[in-house]
Design goal:
Length: 377
Amino acid sequence: MRLLVLYQARDAAKDHPGYFAGFERLVAEGVLSSHTAIPYYGVAEARGWDALWSEAYQAARQIEADAIFLQFFHGPIPDPAEGIQRLQRLPGKPLVFTSLGDPFGRWTKRVGPCFEAASSLAAVTFLTGMGYLARQLERRGSKNLVLMPHGCCQVRFGAQTEPVASHPDFDAVFVGSRLRSRNPSSHFFWVARHRAEFVAAFTKRYGRRFGLFGNGWSGNASWQGPVPFLEQEATYRRSAVVLGGMPNATHDYYLSDRPFIAAASGVPLVDRWVRGVDRILTHERDWWLAPDIDGMIRCCDRLLEMPQSDRLAVAAQTRERILASHTQYHRCREMVEIVSNLRQKRQRGERAQAPALSFLSPGPAFAVPPAIVNWQG
């Protein structure tokens, strides 16, 4: 399959190295025939959105693209419908698919019209969370909505050039900035409030043994200052336990990339439960989950009571599983397999069955939220 990717980037290889390297590896493995990259923000900011769609059309025609991926296609983007439809009218009838990467709210900070338009036209839409978000898109005409979580960037993380500290500086570490919103009707007002409550509770419980990193926490006795994104894994390895903090959205299955990065650090991870996430990573094996702050503190205390050798042995096994199954390369591969199968079935005039998702553990159908919505094949 010849793949054209419109990256949410100014420089595709620099801004999304895990995805770029993932698709390049699929070419080397023979899964893809070719991978062509266009950074859509870089082109649009330099020459305008019309030029972006013209470049995408020319590139797709030149390589005879079988599929076109609109990666994380949300943000300040003008109506993309005409550009997408022009691509779909190419002689090879390339299959267009898209993905959503950010958290969005149920009532405010909802998915914008650009992504709604792209998703309604796409053959497949990959989402990092389902629930109310998938239902909103379905009502707007989207079909074949498929869960595809974030993963650990295998280019920037996972090397572990330094060992986990034998005498940790902290009992627990949280990396995350303080969010601020003065509008009680805003989605992020409540996200910010919950994060502040979480930080206050762990500061009270662990004091200076709580390592708090990020912007905006001045005055907190546990605050260690900000930490660059690429140094967060090394920061995690200074602690006995890593805290995932409070999720920025609560639609089913939603996870940012940070839990995967943290779980690959070799240090146990405690996080807040969101419905469905324990099917992606297993509770009390890959991480420790709780529905509230008090429960997170209890999980943290239990881990700290374990002998360090046992705690690190469990975390080392988790790290191996993350790097073997939950990197951005693995997400690239699964998306390509789903899209390729759908394309082949359509070419034969057949209906594709809903895909089996490799990253989900089994569970009784009545007890778990759907990970695929409005599948029409």
